[in-house]
Design a protein that fits this description.
With about 280 residues, this protein is an alpha+beta fold. It has eight helices and 14 strands. The chain folds into two domains: about 100 residues, no CATH class; about 100 residues, Gcn5-related N-acetyltransferase (GNAT) (Aminopeptidase, 3-Layer(aba) Sandwich), CATH 3.40.630.30. α8 links the parallel β11 and β12. The two termini are about 40 Å apart.
């Protein structure tokens, strides 16, 4: 017969293990762990986002499914940490379904993007050696994708970032100004994911006072509303992850309304806890 973990002991041991800085992943801060309806419920803060987030792991099904019959309790806790790390590092807080509860925002892995659009950061640093290696690998294999395996001590600032956006018909001046004056929170690009795919849009998010972030640029060269939603949501999440509780934008950026922005004078505004992905 398969052994099952004692839920109370699992919760207690997990709470002790995950309180250590970096125990799950950078940006994760455990608030509490408890047993809820036969599951392990973990409450945490993510990066500088002030929201209280919750995730639930079924118990005992998940440890048995992952580790088989002969798992040790510490193995189960480590495996759960790996699962949560993977989800968080691939944007769980951005793409998960959300349910507001009395204890916080319950994240459910329900909204993986199927739009075909991919949002990433505009590179501000580069590893010349790693780029050469990746390009050589793509040329040799015929693949359109490659992993750029750079190291921090090999990175060099890009003197004039975002010029590939200008070449795609976008205007990178606002992003470069924000880099130069130190106000940049995030500079994002959107494309189809392949190394040779044309950049279809960009977003620039900058600091505006001590608590606010301004969506300074939301520029697209595609009529696909799904691309607009993905890019706008990523920009807003970058602001909230940086600890900005109030988001503002010019009223001309009316594509933000679908995320919960509202009129306030000459601006569009939203609080961090008012944001909603369209259809979520």
């Amino acid at each position: 017969m398969a052994r099952v973990p004692d839920l109370a002991e699992l919760v207690d041991r997990l709470a002790g293990s995950w309180r250590r800085p970096g125990a799950v992943t950078d940006g994760f801060a455990l608030l509490s762990a408890s047993a809820v309806d036969g599951a392990v419920e973990v409450a945490f803060h993510w990066r500088s986002d002030p929201a209280r987030y919750l995730v639930r792991f079924p118990c005992p099904d998940l440890p048995q499914e992952v580790l088989g019959e002969d798992f040790e309790l510490d193995d189960a806790i480590g495996e759960l940490a790996l699962l949560l790390m993977e989800d968080l590092d691939t944007g769980l807080v951005s793409w998960a379904g959300r349910t507001s509860t009395a204890d916080g925002v319950l994240l459910q892995p329900a909204r993986q993007s199927s739009s075909g659009w991919f949002v990433g950061e505009v590179p501000l640093e580069a590893s010349p050696g790693a780029l050469r290696t990746a390009r050589a690998a793509m040329a040799a294999s015929g693949e359109r994708f490659a992993v750029v395996a750079s190291h921090e001590d090999d990175l060099e600032p890009i003197a004039d970032p975002g010029r590939f956006l200008d070449a795609a018909g976008l205007d990178g001046d606002a992003g470069r100004r924000a880099v130069a004056d130190g106000s940049l929170i995030a500079w994002l690009q959107i494309d189809r994911g392949a190394a040779d795919s044309l950049r279809a849009g960009q977003a620039v998010v900058v600091m505006d006072g001590a608590e606010a972030a301004r969506i300074a640029v939301l520029e697209l060269r595609t009529p696909d509303r799904r691309a607009l939603a993905e890019l706008a949501w990523a920009a807003c999440r970058a602001a909230v992850d940086a600890g900005r509780v109030r988001l503002i934008a010019d009223r001309a950026l009316d594509g933000l309304r679908v995320l919960g922005f509202r009129d306030e004078g000459d601006l569009l505004v939203a609080r961090h806890d008012e944001l909603r992905f369209p259809g979520a």
